[in-house]
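haha ok so turns out i had the wrong file open the whole time. this is the CORRECT one, sorry everyone. sequence first:
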Amino acid sequence: MNTHIKNILALLPEVEGFRTETTDIYIEGDTISGIGQAPEGFAADRTIDGTGRMVIPGLINAHTHAYMTILRGVADDVPFDKWLFEGVMPKEDAMTPEDAYWSAALGLMEMISTGTTCFNDMQMHIHQTTKAAVDVGIRGVIGRGLSGTATDEGGARRLREAVEEMEAWQKEPLLSFMIAPHAPYSCEGEYIKQAAALAEERGLRIHMHLSESQNEVENVKKDHDGMSPIEYMDSLGLFRIPTLAAHCVWVSDHDIEIMRDRGVSVVTNPASNMKLGNGFAPVPAMLDAGINVCLGTDGAASNNRLNMFHEMSLLTMIHKGVQKSPVSVSATEALRMATSCGARALGLGDVTGEIAVGKKADLAILNLDCPQMIPLNDPISSLAYCANGSEVETVLVNGEIVMENRQFTKIDEERVYFEARSRARW
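then structure:
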């Protein structure tokens, strides 16, 4: 189907930033084929009137756990280790695959409703988040969370499950995969090497939690000759594989140098890191070092939202306050981290993350006729500091409308709500 979006304010890419202009966008099938001028021979099957609206590249949630959405609010206001080991993990273990599916579907609907068109997920119930992503219509990068040792059956089973899931869903155009060792405290060193070897064999990237909490860093240093988690992973050779490191709150200058030199991307999660009391990642220092930093929500059990507009707002405000500098982490930087930087980290830089000819039509259309967006003196500033996600009206993924006038087009919204409520039995 060919789509013509006419007379819309568009957020378009420039070198290291964006510009906005009112224009027309032409979509042929799943791909943007023209901006401003229709391609030769273009005939629209569908026209969207963009008057009073703004179109942005779909946001990219570069670190989350969609299956955890029904754990929202079950272990709040407790220390990180208690949250993880006593609050979340026992409930994860009690979840059925069906619980995970409906939980993921709910989370993905929340993402779409706030402008996210692509997510990177670490999950533990194979085939459930993948099926939910296909049913909802969102672009997904999926990794089966890995934990264990090189010799235990549980660790080997998780590696087999990762391969099984990839092979089962490899023909789905919206899905791709990563290898996802969970964290240094849940994966033994030789097991991490096995995960890296699997990623190398299959040409995949690594997604891993690193240096999230102070306790994690102290324990890794105690167990591994004073090395930080970043130094330890480097010693294992993990970073020879393109790696996306989640959190990186407790990192040293030397850690930052290693990540820069090895081409590691970092996904920062401001709400989760604050809520669990883990602190503030040194994002300005990482940006200054030239590290590709992107943005994620983490799961709903630790955020408790899956709203990338909320993350952008927090990201820009936090670092201005911490650095005591009003120019630290600008609105433009936040938008790049939530779009093109995320695409680059996921290996999707040629696919999504920008409104550009040849990119897939992953787009969010915002209604500007709402109090918080008036007046629109600076559209880029308004996206980071004023928008809250409720402005998102219509969402396209791969050229297909998956939400129109805030109504989901591919999945039964009421059924998802019913199933999620009935399965939240904690």
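The chain has two domains: 2-58+354-408, 59-345.
again sry for the mixup
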